[in-house]
Write a structure and sequence with these properties.
The complex is a heterotetramer, with two copies of chain A (about 280 residues), one copy of chain C (about 240 residues) and one copy of chain D (about 210 residues).
Chain A: E1 3-11, E2 17-26, E3 31-35, H1 42-49, E4 57-62, E5 65-66, H2 71-80, E6 81-84, H3 97-107, H4 112-125, H5 141-153, E7 159-163, H6 171-186, E8 190-195, H7 198-204, E9 207-212, E10 215-221, H8 222-226, H9 229-234, H10 241-251, H11 265-274
Parallel strand pairs in A: 3-8, 3-9, 6-7, 7-8
Antiparallel strand pairs in A: 1-2, 1-4, 4-5, 9-10
Chain C: H1 3-10, H2 18-34, H3 37-54, H4 59-77, E1 82-85, E2 88-91, H5 95-117, H6 122-131, H7 136-165, H8 172-202, H9 221-240
Antiparallel strand pairs in C: 1-2
Chain D: H1 10-37, H2 41-56, H3 73-80, H4 82-100, H5 108-132, H6 137-163, H7 170-205
The chains are: A alpha/beta (about 280), C mainly alpha (about 240), D mainly alpha (about 210).
Chain lengths: ~280, ~280, ~240, ~210
Amino acid sequence: MILEARRLGHCYVGGVEALRDLDLAVPRGQRLAILGPNGAGKTTLLLHLNGTLRPKSGQVLLDGRAVGYDRASLNSWRRRVGLVLQEPDDQLFAATVFEDVSFGPLNLGLSEAEARLRVEEALEALRITALAERPTHMLSFGQKKRVAIAGAVAMRPEVLLLDEPSAGLDSMGTAHLLAALDQLRQAGTTLVFTTHDVDLAWSWADQVALFHQGGVACQGSAESLLSDRAALAAAHLKMPMALALGLKARQLGLLAADQSLPRGRSESLALLDRLTPPGQ
Amino acid sequence: MILEARRLGHCYVGGVEALRDLDLAVPRGQRLAILGPNGAGKTTLLLHLNGTLRPKSGQVLLDGRAVGYDRASLNSWRRRVGLVLQEPDDQLFAATVFEDVSFGPLNLGLSEAEARLRVEEALEALRITALAERPTHMLSFGQKKRVAIAGAVAMRPEVLLLDEPSAGLDSMGTAHLLAALDQLRQAGTTLVFTTHDVDLAWSWADQVALFHQGGVACQGSAESLLSDRAALAAAHLKMPMALALGLKARQLGLLAADQSLPRGRSESLALLDRLTPPGQ
Amino acid sequence: MIEADRLAHASRWRRLPLAEKALLCLGLLILAMALPPWPGAVLVLLVASAGAVISGLTLPTWLRLLAPPCFFILTGAATLLVQVSADGIGLAADGGIQAGLLLSRALAAVAALLLLTVTTPMAELVQGLRRLGLPVELAEVTMTTYRFIFILQDTASAMHASQMARLGGDGWRRRIRSAGLLAAALLPRALDQARRLEMGLLARGFDGSLRTLMPAQRVRPWRLAVIAGGLALMAGLSLWI
Amino acid sequence: MHIMEGFLPAGHALAWSAVSAPLVVVGAMRLRKILRDRPEARLTLAAAGAFAFVLSALKLPSVTGSCSHPTGTGLGAMAVGPAATSVIGTIVLLFQALLLAHGGLTTLGANVFSMAIAGPWIAFGVWKLAGKLGAPMGLAIFLGATLGDLGTYVVTSFQLALAFPDAVSGFGGAFAKFATIFAITQIPLAIAEGLLTVVVMNALAGR
């Protein structure tokens, strides 16, 4: 486990309990979806996972060791765990893309030359090198989102936390973003993201944690957890369409047990095409 | 047709063409989805449909008559066509929900008693009567969204324009909102909404207009249009899962031609359950 | 959307070093102020307009940008046409000439400054001020202000559209009230935006300073010399005439 | 009431810059100290500045038919105090000059004096005084904002009259001329700004 939360508790100023005895384990190199309804405290959890918020109770562990909240600990924590908020305007402040992405690397104390290299690398990874000189305020929402991610990636985090990465993106924007993130994962970055969308969790996560009433109700592989009707119902969620279809296809003998289940819309539609009328 | 746009053209100050020769017809009493990718100009179109923006070319017709842009025309136009933008925070000004919803009715020049009646009616319609005395800044996102809609509904518009009504809502929030809007439609309100989500368009619209490159590529009934693979592909869209499943079920003889196709996730999952392995 | 800002980012001169553009434009501004309006101001106006067209603006766009300040200058200059004496108000003897001279000087100065702003993005201007000794904290506040302006402008225009849709613009009283409500709703939004940005920046290692990398520019001395020479030529020419 | 770029003769432009500069520099030094102690105040100040800029672009109806905009100085002075308003106001005036060609660099000193120094202090003084004299809060706000706005207009007329004295009646006649011409738009506008500020302050208090 690269990152863990143990019995985390947090109250907001109003006394509203956002997190209660929350346990979460982030396995290295995987994509973990934190799935739950809006306003349940998923964002609060992410803010705890990189030390931006300090828990009222419980602790966060990096590589099995509890992290402190002094300046030096926070500094090294944030080097290793990057955070991308849902709203890109909450993270972008500089006038141009290049300048903005360079903020994180310079905060790491890198030299200008090194920082420049990191920025170029991050822009490359998110495929936005062409936007480098563009003013931040002239970007589309999807472009801003990528710049915000590049800003975190330029710090070369081992874990990248993403709050609702697909929110506000249309299907093509989401597909492009996930492709870029996939590349990061292949390079070894652990990805944790929150979502309220079961279809997204199924299409893209290796592991899923069901977030319910301030805690993690259960955590497991995407397939085992999202096909568990009882667990889903308890969290007021429904099964992803693609997974339901895939399970049905297995049951119908159209998909062998060792063949992979459809994850996205295209695969599902293709599988649907293979269903044949009786007697054919 | 209660509302029409004919050969509408609009350029932004930057010279970017947002709308080009756009034709759209809104049939009375129906739910029309304007479906297209983000940043394509869907919001700009809505702003033209209630006279907030004035087109560079073409015209907007109400009940078959072109509307003017003088003060009196705009006034009666906006009484008849309400607008709800995507971000509820941009639409709530007053301290409490009740005050905010009364903004429109008071501007109609109604007496206080009448305005009060309208407000109560609108809160009722959106099922937020219990929130009346709450300060607007303490509401959840979903609640704010409903208050914003109530603010428009309190003016008793014949047509209600909604920009991405489900954006930012989770599946339960969306379901609640759509149920409230359904009630308005049953009371006779024509609903026009933009979305980039084919599944939402299929689950909730009677008619769909495909928005592509600043114009409406085609418009028709939800079923005919969303099952037209060529039209969808031209607009870079994929078929809604529920529709694809329903069409397949018809082909398999599981669904008679006169039985209605599944629209939402629950119906689809139920239909999927009815697929039987061969030989049973 | 602020037009001068958009044009600056699309300008053909966008990549020229700040020093060259600043020398040219501020030099023209000083000439406009220092030289006799005829023919100095007229020369400055012509050179600035030529510069604008060369940098990629169309003439109608340039004139459209000049029009609003021109209108304000006209209303001010009009007062020079009349004179007030014990007998009452009359036409000033050389009022027309005075107003004309003032108009041409101000217009030339506006054109010189405008040429700078339609060719140079704000980030570079503030970077220049920074090099001239603007304290780093204030430069950071200025740049963040610039960034916030665009966010708040989008919010304000959505708020405005929403108010108009609910007939908040009908009549003088309602417009005052709507404008007041808008301002009152916008201020907490602005402060909230600041708070959320702080949170977002903390996650990126914000330690109090907002340092970023600026694209490097190389100044070519010979071009500076050419610009300075041109300015000197203009000065000599107009003083000689 | 912005004085446009190049409108003031060079001598006047320099003189007003010399008058305003020390006041702004003192404000800026104090601000630097605050920013060192509380780095996050950068973001709050930036938000306030952007708010003032966007507010000044709000179109207000005015009697002469031309649209004009509020100065926001009264609101700033009452909300964050006149000294901070001076620094934020200077930044906003710089942006208005550069982004909107409204005002100018050579006239920045004069405009800072009328709109970022005189206006806020007048508004603040009137508001406090009216409150002490027992005026209801709404009236005190209205008087402060209205007279702050009118104050900037009187100072601007004064600045212009100094620069362009009347050929016959000198400074006095010129002041009368400028004051009269601008009164047409500025008096209704000042009243509008006063009302607007009352609405804003009430709405903010209600939150």
